[in-house]
Specification:
The structure is a homodimer of 207-residue chains. Chain A is an alpha/beta fold and 207 residues long. Chain A contains 9 helices and 9 strands. Helix content of chain A is 43%, strand content 19%.
Chain lengths: 207, 207
Amino acid sequence: MGIQKSGKGLLIVLSGPSGAGKGTVCSALRRQAPEVVYSVSATTRQPREGEVDGINYFFKSKEEFKRMIEEGELLEWARYVDNYYGTPRRFVEDRLAEGKNVLLEIEVQGARQVKEHFPEGVFIFLLPPSMKELYARIRGRGTESEEVVEDRMTAARKELDQVHQYDYVVVNDEVAKACQRIRSIMMAEQSRRERIFREQPDWLEGF
Amino acid sequence: MGIQKSGKGLLIVLSGPSGAGKGTVCSALRRQAPEVVYSVSATTRQPREGEVDGINYFFKSKEEFKRMIEEGELLEWARYVDNYYGTPRRFVEDRLAEGKNVLLEIEVQGARQVKEHFPEGVFIFLLPPSMKELYARIRGRGTESEEVVEDRMTAARKELDQVHQYDYVVVNDEVAKACQRIRSIMMAEQSRRERIFREQPDWLEGF
């Protein structure tokens, strides 16, 4: 978008507590903003019907995944139950070098890892419409035990505490509005003076 | 727009060197973004045909204008040839308190004065499509003396040096694109975590 054509792309990290609707917002963004590159995660879980390697996920064996961790090939990773999930660093760095904007939709823990490698990333914290709604989503359909609900509440509170590590807070009151806010953030960040001159200190001379 | 409904509006300062097209961009924004309040300047010059007091300008006598300066009623002011121009503080502060976003389209010198009063404002530096274009505009129709052109060049260079005081740099390559960038900046700034929590430190609790 104009000003940064010759510079690196933006790394946009979309995160927030479970139940904020990250996946839904990200799917809508994929349709509305196809010029953005959406990072593909690596996982050790089995492909589901119709899932394609390199499109939905990079499917890896556990041995391969552990090797990637050891060799620093992942920007962030986590283990859920029996499977590993993570973001391959190479794919992200190559797209950024091409000047593409890359969006990662990841958990709060992963976002913290990414921030260590990419402090210049744009960190967006997505929230559900209200705290009441967040708790309702955590409580689910009322089929979970009190203990499970309590654990999830504790986890959500910890995630919410991370808001102060983020650049932006976007409320997902309506998916279309949340997408519009995120797209505005991407456009605005490309005009940030600090970012332009950090990438190209003599930008004004070449202008 | 959602998140900041209960907070103060944004003060957006659109400035940049003479010849950047501030007036043209601002006129286009007025049509596209009528929800934004456009500040009305005070001036001592005579109203032109069709100009309405309180709409195009607040028309003031020189005595009244000097009194406003002395009593701190202007956010910024300057004298051009025989007339004074300035931005009445009260109008801006009242609209901001109502939660409205207010846009000031002013000269670089004035923007510096505003920044002293409103460091939390959003400062946007508008540039023409290229340095070559800027110099062409300064040179004008070639009817000015070399001395006049040289003075204007010196002034433009001083104005360009001020870019580092600004939050955003927007290139006016096309008026429609410049407007879109400015509107994105306004929307994005309303989602900035720092801004939300500065205005409402306990925002998350009330959420």
